[in-house]
Design brief:
It is built from 6 helices and no strands. It has 349 residues and is mainly alpha-helical. It has a domain of 127 residues. Helix 2 crosses helix 5.
Amino acid sequence: QQEKEDLQGKLKLSEHLSQTAGKSEATPPPSKNIDLEMKQLQFKLKNSNNEITKQSTTIKSLKNEVQEKEERVQQLQAKISRLERDLTMKRHLIEDLKSRLKASQENEKTFNETLESLGKKVKALAEDCSNKKTSIDSLKQRLNVATKEKSQYEQMYHKAKDELEKKNLKLNNLESKMIETECAMTELETTASQQLCGLAKQSGHALETVQRKLLLTSDRVQEFMTFVKALTRELQHSVQELRKKIKQAKKKGELKACKKSLSQESVQLAASILNVSTTDLEEILEVEDDEETAKTKMEFEKDKEWLQYVQKLLEAQFPFASYLMDAIMEKLNEKKKLVEEYSSLMEHT
């Protein structure tokens, strides 16, 4: 548009110049410079006209495009208005749907709550039903048991009734027999009292004889007890004496062996070193060692236990003869072994 305005201005100038050129023909002829300018201007005008035609064609094409675009814009505006109407409608629909959704959600919440409460109630009712079923089953079982017991008790009642009738008959028979036996008893009592008097006299004599025999047997038992105690003590004493003799024999043998190994001069030398007599030295040599003392203690304890065992056997209930015999035989065997040992030692010495 600016180029167009410039060209129109230039056209106006050229027209003005042509007018002035027409006037100047009456006047003296123009100079060469003016002709050149005129030619230049005409050339420019041609160019400008060409450009104007081009521009006009372009403008027309642009106008057409603008018209098309305006039409398109109008179509688009109509479309936009339609779309806006649709959009508003859709918004209204969405708002309506939202309100409906909220209402349906609230209804769903209430429905869910009611469903939960109903589910709980159903569960509770189901549990109650199961409990009632179990109670009904148990009651049925009890009823069955009760009916069975009732039938059993009825049978027992009938049996008891029959037995009672039988026993009543027996009782009547027994009562009649009792009367007869009472009569017989009175007769027997009279005869028994007479016989008992005679028996009492006889039993008195028999009791006296039994008491005498018991006293004799108790005296004999006491004597037997004293004999057993004396025997056990004597056995223990003899065993202890034998042990002492065996120890003395062993010591004598050891002393003789020592004396044989040691000469008389060495014995005297040892006595002079210890500053004691030869007899004292022999006594020192005869002192028992710890093992021997422990052994003697053990033997003494065993003898004590044996005596206590014999005492317990004598105080125990019958029969105890076999156990007493075993205990005495054990001690006798021990004595026998000790005698053999002592005789062998004596032979060696």
